[in-house]
Design goal:
This protein is mainly alpha-helical and 133 residues long. It has two domains: 65 residues, 3-Layer(aba) Sandwich (NADH Oxidase), CATH 3.40.109.10; 42 residues, no CATH class. Strands 1-2 form a two-stranded antiparallel sheet. The longest helix has 14 residues. It is elongated, with a radius of gyration of 21 Å.
Length: 133
């Protein structure tokens, strides 16, 4: 199947058979997902496997009324890590400044600052749409 065919023939499934998906199939799917490309191979996602009926029902309730979620045998919840690239980008920016001769590579103060950004500082920077450099 080529990419055009894959995109043009895809469909959204909203009706599920009452069949429990075997654990080995779920594990295989999760292993395949590991090979999905990501910038710098950061794989900035986490996946939660939900099989609990009550949890699936609650997910459906907070998912804009998509009640079909509750009837799925398994729900994979994908979480994106929006800070995954932040430190890497800061290090890349530092290296660019060194390459351009703007700062000296022995500028330990800047590297110390970059490597010591606390999680709260990162959250605050994101909240205020700030750059940490």
């Amino acid at each position: 199947m080529n990419i055009r065919e894959a995109i043009c023939t895809r469909s959204s499934v909203r009706c599920f058979r009452n069949i429990k998906i075997p654990r080995n199939i779920i594990t295989e799917i999760l292993n395949i997902i590991r090979f999905a490309p990501s910038s710098k191979n950061a794989q900035p996602w986490r996946i939660i496997v939900v099989e609990n009926e009550d949890v699936k029902r609650r997910i459906a309730e907070v998912s804009y009324g998509q009640e079909w979620i509750a009837s799925a045998s398994v729900v994979l919840v994908f979480l994106g890590d929006i800070e995954a690239y932040l430190r890497e980008d800061l290090f890349s920016a530092f290296q660019t400044l060194v390459d351009l001769g703007i700062i000296d590579s022995s500028s330990d103060d800047l590297m110390d600052y970059i490597s010591k950004c606390s999680e709260d500082e990162v959250k605050l920077a994101r909240l205020l749409n700030l750059c940490l450099m």
